[in-house]
Amino acid sequence: MNNKIIIINGPNLNLLGEREQSQYGSITFEELREICSNKSKELGLVAEFYQSNIEGELVNLIQDSRKKFDGIIINAAAFTHTSVAIRDALNVFKKPIIEIHISNIYKREEFRHKSLISDVVTGGIFGLGADGYILAIISMQKLLKNENR
Ligand code: DQA
Q1: Is 78 in the pocket of ligand 1 (CB under 6 A)?
Q2: Which CATH architecture has domain 4-144?
Q3: Is 101 a catalytic residue?
Q4: What is the pLDDT of residues 34-88, one digit of tens each?
Q5: Which of 26, 31, 88, 101 lies 20 to 30 Å (CA to CA) from residue 130?
C-alpha cells in the first residue's frame, strides 16, 4: 500500500511568489503545491498539501495526522520560532517528521535562529529554496521504506 504523507505549511506561505522574493524566490504557492504533488506521485506517495495562518488549526491538524499519515513534512514558518503548542503536537507524532525552511534561517534575523521544533523532528532542510520540499519528499520516501543511509 502507498504511504500517506502530509505537507504542512504555516502562516504567510500562501503568499509565496508575492512576499519577499529575495528570501523565498518567485515560485507561487500553487506552483509549489504542484511540484510537491508531482514528486510525491513519482515516488509512489499519496501526499496532502495544507496551509493555515492559524496556530490552533495547525495543532489540530498535527494531532489528527497521527491516525491518518505515515509522515509529516512541515514548514511551520513564523510559528517555528514561537510555538510551544506546535512543538508539543509534533512530539506526539511518533513517525518521521521533516522540518523545512525555504530560506536559510541562520543567515537572517537572530529571532529566526531558534527553532522550537528542530529537536523533536527526524531531520531538517533549510536555505535551499523551494527545492527543499522536493528533497524532503525524497528523504521521507526513503525513511518510510527504511532505505535512508
Ligand atoms: C520560513 C522562515 C521563517 O522564519 C519565516 O517566518 C517564514 C518562512 C522559510 O521557509 O524560510 O515564514 O519558514
Answers
A1: yes
A2: 3-Layer(aba) Sandwich (3.40)
A3: yes
A4: 999 999 999 999 999 999 999 999 999 999 999 999 999 999 999 999 999 999 9
A5: 88
